[in-house]
Amino acid sequence: MNKVVTSSGRDVAQPAAGLVETIKRLFRVSEFLIFLVVIALFIIGAIVNPRFLGLENQKVMTRDAAILAIAAIGVGFPIITGGIDLSIGSIVGLGGVLSAYFVVKMGLPIWVGITLALLVGVVIGAIHGLFVTKLKMHGFLITLVTLGVARGSILVLTNGTPITGVPDEYTVLGQGYLFDLIPLPVLICLLVAGLAYYLLRYTFIGRQIYAVGGNIEATRLSGVNVDARIILCYIISVVCATLVGIIQAGRLSLGHPGAGEGFELLAITACILGGLSLMGGQGSVVGILVGALLIGVLQNEMVMLNINPFWHKIVIGLVLLVAITFDYARRWKR
Amino acid sequence: MDQQPLLRVEHLSKSFPGVRALDDVDFEVYPGEILGFLGENGAGKSTLIKILSGIHHKDQGVIWFNGQTINPHTPHEAQALGISTIHQELALVPYLSVAENIFLNNEPRRALGLVDFRRMNRQAEELLRGLGAEIRGSQLIRELNVAAQQMVEIAKAVSHKASLILMDEPTSALSSREVDALFALMRRLKERGVAVVFVSHRLDEVRQIVDRVIIMRDSRRVGSLPIAEASEEKIIRMMVGRDVGLFPKEAAPVGEPVLEVRRLSGQNGVRNISLTVRKGEIVGMAGLVGAGRTELARLICGVDSLSGGEILIEGRPVQIKSPADAVKHGIGWVPEDRKLHGLVLGMDVQENTTMAILQRISNLWGAVRQTEAKRISKHYIEALSIATPSLTQTVRNLSGGNQQKVVLAKWLSTEPKLLIMDEPTRGIDIGAKAEVHALMSQLAQRGIGILMISSEMPEIIGMSDRVIVMCQGRVTGEFVRGQLDQEAIMTCATQFLSVEGDIAEKVEAVAEGINQ
Predict the structure, then answer these.
(1) A222 vs B323: CB contact, 8 Å cut-off?
(2) CATH assignment at residue B486
(3) How far is A297 from A275, CA to CA, in rounded Å?
(4) Count of A–B CB contacts within 8 Å?
(5) What CATH code would you report for A60-303+310-333?
(6) Are the C-beta atoms of residues B141 and B149 closer than 8 Å to each other?
(7) pLDDT tens digit string along B71-118?
(8) Site from B325, B368, B415 to mutate, A interface, most A CB atoms within 10 angstroms
(9) Inter-chain contact B342–A281, Cβ cutoff 8 Å?
(10) Are A182 and A192 in contact (CB under 8 A)?
(11) Mean pLDDT of B204-233
């Protein structure tokens, strides 16, 4: 039996088949099923609150979903290798605060401040990767350390108060629109997604990243520089989270020390909804995008329906529970 | 012996997908008897032990134990019946004490369910002393050496009132002094009327300790001899004696050396190995499990690091520090365990086939050229006649023989100069075996040098131009085609015969062995 898409998302030539057969195949693709859920949520939203489909709300919703998607795509990389990055929530905070600090407190040009913040991200990601590859430490541990240390560093740096006075040229990153219609974060997200998609799906580096997640020993013995691939994945994860922090700071017009708290839960949930397995070796960028969209829509709807914000995390947690239960049930059936 | 047997096994059979592991095996064990099992790898010894200890389940046959038929489904069930097993890998909890391990789930209690540690330690020490071992009950398992841990494991079996103890290669990790201690312990068990089934590769050891020996070959029992009648020669002949003409290696012109290894040593137990593989030559590496053959392959392929010696490829010394270096120098390794080390099971045939050459077939932007990848995989699927419905078939769904061919395809696509093949036909059916052997002949004819590690004597004898025998990390013999004598090879594999090289080296090597 031929599959439409292999578990690792590689393009597969489809033999000609009837429409029924094509639809049947589509239903076996988890990304498609999640997409159906997103559509269902849209319909429910539109019925319950007419303002949901309104342009203003759609701008807000897509912007939030895009910001989440960038972080989710980033953390997807270590997950595909069979690792994880728990640090991204704190990194989001650090990215925003650092760039605001460079621009506001040190008076550096905006692009310099942003580049420096991203470079710090590269260094942190590289450190994670080195611990994971050279010390054979599980990513869970070293990124857990950063989750704490990065958040603490933010508090030391800001003394617990937000850095205000971010210039307009900076805030446009989070607040601006193209043609007064498409939020800039959505464009940034599409750019990131496009690059990630190309890297994972078409390049040898991407294919080797999937292979590492599938069987690291066999991949190493095939002569692949496994360590370099893993380090790259951890760098991408932190850099994406830093980028999210920078966008968030633009959106809020300030570097907030509490920004990004709990963001790792959302991003990892988006990945798992999108079909990534924590065992590694599986999933695609398209899936992650759909997963992030689902969470974005869900969060937006909860606001529109005036659900007490205290309940939001519970709902997201339960969605994660449903997703992983399905994932594991499917695995046992095999 | 005309007493009742403790255990009687009749017509026991067991199959795994694609392999018949046990075929109509009969035997019996009497109380107070030490019964040895001998056979090559894959002869079915371990499967037998695993069925009796409740890990695998029989397909057919009857097991009588103490006059009743039994069919243990879990290790716990077997233990409750009085059958305990000492596995090759010890099953103790490292961070608990000796006594806690012995009485795990069976701890002496005080009021309120508290463990009576003092009583438990005392009982454990008594138990161990009864077996001739002085070990403190409060000591942690991880502080003990393997031999002492084994004692603890046996004490645990005794505490479960086991009347039959199965030992699967218990001596493989022991020094000779520790082996003596283990044998003394086995004799004490024997005096108490406990029966022991002892599985080993080591002929000399088996002859020392057992009362009777059963010889297995190709999943069948081929003989049962009282030890007094079992000469070494006779045993070896029974172990290996089968049709050797199945595996013809076709003649190939032998050229310049591809691989030369000089005095190679590593932390992983390989000591001072020198050997040469020439173009078009198949060099067989014979020896027992643990002889250091796979470890030698790991050194050559840059998986484990060298502690001494040098490697030459086509006459030039090379530094191989990682598998990537090995691939760069034209070395391919078809590993022993294809699922663990050879394949990414969740990926498809094309991706596995091109795994080692992805970078080479990518364009400037790093994108893999799909048409090229497809062409190469198609080529090898046809050349190796891999039976797969398509290039996009996940390799997990292929049969063992076809999986093995995919591993081969992966390495052939790198156009290697040297192929190291570790147990190239393990766990694949006869038909696929013959195909793999024919392929090896063709590769040799094309000028590839092949270093073939095999534990199957017919394969070694049929395929090799030259055979190098290893034992305990060292080369213990070398034979050329035409002089291949399986009994002589077996003798080299089980003890030290003539060590090639100068005398000083030999003395040093032996001294090293004693110091360990």
Answers:
(1) yes
(2) 3.40.50.300
(3) 18
(4) 98
(5) 1.10.3470
(6) yes
(7) 888 888 888 888 888 876 667 888 888 888 888 877 777 777 788 888
(8) B368
(9) no
(10) no
(11) 82
The residue to which tokens 């990390």 are assigned: B473
Inter-residue contact A93 to A256 (CB < 8 Å): yes
**Is the predicted pLDDT of residue A26 greater than 90, yes or no?**
no
Instruction: Please tell me which of the candidates A198, A207, A224 has its beta carbon nearest to residue B351.
Output: A207
User: In Å, how far is A121's CA from the nearest CA of chain B?
Assistant: 24
Tokens for B454, please give them.
């095999």
Lowest mean pLDDT among A45-59, A272-286, B20-34, B413-427: A45-59
Q: Do A211 and B355 touch (CB under 8 A)?
A: yes
pTM exceeding the 0.80 threshold for the entire prediction = no
Per-residue pLDDT tens over the stretch B349-360? 999 999 999 888
A220/B394 Cβ within 8 A: no
- At residue B220, the 3 state secondary structure works out as strand
Mean pLDDT of B510-516: 41
Any domain includes B250: no
Parent domain of B491: 257-515
A229 neighbourhood in chain B, CB within 8 Å: none
pLDDT at residue B19, rounded to an integer = 64
Residue A96 pLDDT grade (very low, low, confident, very high; cuts 50, 70, 90): very high
Pick the last residue of a domain from B211, B240, B269. B240
Q: Does any domain span residue B345?
A: yes
Nearest CA in chain A to B322: A223
Domain match, B155 and B100 both? yes
Answer yes or no: is pLDDT of A129 > 90: yes
Helix (H) or strand (E) holding B14: strand B7-16
Helix ranges, B280-347 (H): 293-300, 323-328
